[in-house]
Write a structure and sequence with these properties.
Chain lengths: ~350, ~280
């Protein structure tokens, strides 16, 4: 473990910036999000969680796949420096691991390079993620439902615990350990284990009681035709905000900008909440009505992903709960389903 | 495949030949050749797979590969003009360069079919990958038993590959049933919807069967096959959904926990039964 004074953060960011492009939570207009920073002054507290999830670091909302003109197709140049991310909360670090299962590989044909997403891999594989223990979860947080917790280290290369005046950093992955070793001499003597434990307990006490959703997968297998879906989805206005802010939603659209002679092909976040998502040229739409789309969102997160990757595609970050204009709360949906 | 390092980059192809399949010119078949020798050598596919056809500035659309891997040097696609990308494809001229990505998805299990009888049931312009499979089996004729084809279209004009249908009709190692929806002057083949004809033909349920056509045709043909005694694991079909990436990332083509672009488009009825959204 390495302990630094909070005032040393600026030095750490400068040190990182020599080898990395550094991302951190910043104020971004009225919202908060993860952006590239030049100095530690730009960093804001990432708790409460940023409005927009850090998935945009590795999977930007709009990303150029290639440009074309009369000379042919050109893929954008690789970023010369790898990415380092400071202050990614435990739930978000976990969400990046989930997305890596989709983009970094595919369950179907794991060894076939064709199924990798090169744009994701190029950014993620070389990245260094500083996860941040969450000292004060919000009332919308429910990471504890998914075997996560405010001090969960999964997905972090270096896990950081914030005390009153210090950051205590622990190397988790090989990459993270190597970085810390090079950065500063390990000094265990100075670490107040009890202090960490009490921070952890305090953080956990903010969370409402864990709801056991272990039967949700089986339940969802059985209720496809039940009227409960009408009840669950009746409020939803299909605005897509929930999927937009979600740290684990990965659907995208591909579209061309420009004329046939010159332009670019880009991909953009998309949402299964929109009817056009599945609308076919013939006019046929397999998910033409709202209830089918809400069902898709719930099924993908708590059933289909389990089939493919053996976990739920949700970290309990609560962003969708915070953003929904009609207060449709995914936790209430889950509670209803486990009781059917 | 492939453009292994980056699957999103289309490989360049040259339009060699364009054929109008019907008088109203809504269906056209394109023969494409590889611009680069290397791409040609890397492109290995089997009947049933598809490609994303790319028109820079317009976008991409998925199409089943209508050629058979036994037809060297070219890839064939038959395109129904229905929207923005397909409209631009219809404006292509011989000699133009286009892009394709693929081959994508799985294929009809032609290896498994070896030694068995095979029934092919198709409707409308969805005969594309069925053509691929049929040519493939005819090229490897000794590997397969009896081959029966049932092919339906609304009117005689709407059949695709009309010249080849004539050739196939003459062969004695292949039984071809063509049917149109309603009787018409000058039509010498069968009349009636594909499911009805399938029932009347009393097919041998020990055969393998592949059904591909408009969703409504598939929906009504499957029960006929099941009633006739075909086991769920010997019935295959090919599904369509909107697609974007073609490699299981963009989420667009999901049905249940499967993605049609990588887990399909070919599924056995045994698999489909388990997917609530499939029909
Ligand atoms: C595996 C597969 C094989 C196919 N094979 C053929 C074929 O051999 N011949 C043929 O004519 N058509 C085929 N289709 C359907 C064809 O892809 C659509 O008709 C075509 O994408 C319509 O595009 P558009 O831009 O002209 O229409 P628009 O309505 O303008 O559509 C815009 C976009 O919607 C998507 N889209 C719309 N309808 C469909 C659809 N039914 N399926 C998939 N994507 C759709 C495409 O991404 C397209 O770029 C196939 C579809 C799939 C999934
Ligand atoms: S579904 Fe909601 S709680 Fe779960 S990861 Fe997405 S935004 Fe967070
Ligand atoms: S934010 Fe709420 S209203 Fe909007 S799509 Fe999501 S659940 Fe529906
Ligand atoms: S087309 Fe993108 S997941 Fe199938």
């Amino acid at each position: 473990m390495v302990k630094i004074k909070k005032t040393e953060l600026s030095g750490l960011i400068n040190y990182l910036s020599e080898k990395y492009q550094v991302f951190a939570p910043v104020k971004d207009g009225k919202k908060t999000s993860f952006q590239k920073i030049k100095s530690a002054d730009e960093i804001i507290d990432s708790i409460p969680n940023t409005n927009l999830s850090p998935k945009s670091i590795f999977f930007p909302q709009a990303e150029v796949l290639f440009k074309y003109d009369e000379n042919g197709i050109k893929v954008p140049k690789k970023d010369e420096k790898p990415f380092a991310v400071w202050g990614m909360r435990n739930c978000d670090a976990k969400s990046v691991l989930m997305l890596n299962k989709v983009f970094g590989n595919a369950h179907q044909i794991p060894d076939n390079k064709m199924y990798n997403d090169p744009y994701w891999k190029q950014k993620y594989d070389s990245s260094l993620i500083f996860g941040l223990a969450c000292n004060a979860p919000l009332s919308t947080c429910f990471c504890n439902w998914f075997d996560g917790g405010p001090f969960d280290e999964k997905g972090s290369d270096v896990f950081v615990i914030e005390t009153d005046d210090h950051f205590i950093m622990n190397g988790i992955s090989e990459k993270g350990k190597k970085f810390l070793k090079e950065y500063k001499k390990d000094d265990k003597s100075d670490i107040d284990k009890e202090k960490i434990e009490s921070l952890k307990q305090k953080a956990e006490s903010y969370l409402s009681e864990k709801v056991d959703i272990s039967n949700i997968y089986d339940k969802l297998n059985k209720i496809w035709d039940e009227p409960i879906w009408e009840e669950i989805s009746s409020k939803c206005i299909n605005c897509g905000a929930c999927t937009f802010v979600c740290s684990t939603c990965h659907c995208f659209d591909v579209s061309d900008e420009g004329k046939s002679g010159k332009g670019q092909r880009i991909r953009l976040w998309d949402s299964c909440m929109f009817p056009i998502f599945t609308n076919e040229a013939s006019g046929h739409n397999p998910r033409g009505v709202s209830v089918q789309r809400v069902k898709q969102r719930v099924m993908h997160k708590y059933n289909y992903f389990m089939d493919n990757y053996n976990e739920h595609l949700c970290t309990g970050c609560g962003r969708c709960v915070l953003v929904c204009p009609v207060n449709l709360d995914i936790r209430e949906i889950l509670k209803k389903i486990i009781k059917v | 495949m492939c453009n292994c390092e980056n699957t999103y980059i289309p490989i360049p192809m040259k339009v060699e030949r364009i054929l109008n399949e019907n008088p109203d010119r809504s269906l056209r078949t394109y023969d494409l050749s590889f611009v680069n020798e290397e791409d040609k050598n890397n492109f290995k596919y089997l009947p049933g797979q598809f490609c994303e056809f790319s028109i820079l500035g317009k976008g991409e659309s998925p199409f089943g590969i209508a050629s058979s891997p036994t037809e060297k040097d070219i890839l064939k696609f038959t395109v129904n003009r229905t929207g923005s990308v397909t409209n631009d494809i219809h404006h292509l001229q011989v000699g133009d360069t286009v892009g394709i990505r693929g081959p994508m998805g799985n294929w009809y299990p032609v290896e498994k079919f070896k030694g068995g009888d095979v029934v092919i049931i198709g409707g409308g312009f969805a005969f594309t990958t069925l053509r691929s499979m049929l040519i493939y089996m005819l090229e490897n004729r000794a590997d397969y038993g009896k081959i029966t084809v049932i092919y339906g279209a609304r009117t005689p004009d709407l059949f695709i590959y009309k010249d080849e249908l004539k050739e196939w009709d003459k062969r004695d190692d292949l039984i071809l049933h063509l049917t149109i929806d309603r009787p018409m002057k000058g039509w010498g083949g069968l009349c009636g919807f594909v499911p009805t004809i399938t029932k009347e033909l009393a097919l041998d349920p020990t055969s393998w069967v592949v059904v591909c056509g408009p969703p409504i045709m598939i929906k009504f043909t499957l029960p006929v096959l099941i009633e006739s005694g075909f086991p769920d694991n010997k019935i295959y079909t090919s599904l369509e959904r909107r697609m974007k990436c073609g490699i299981g990332k963009c989420g667009r083509c999901g049905i249940g926990s499967k993605y049609i672009c990588v887990d399909g488009p070919v599924f056995s009825y045994e698999e489909l039964k388990k997917i609530p959204e499939a029909f």
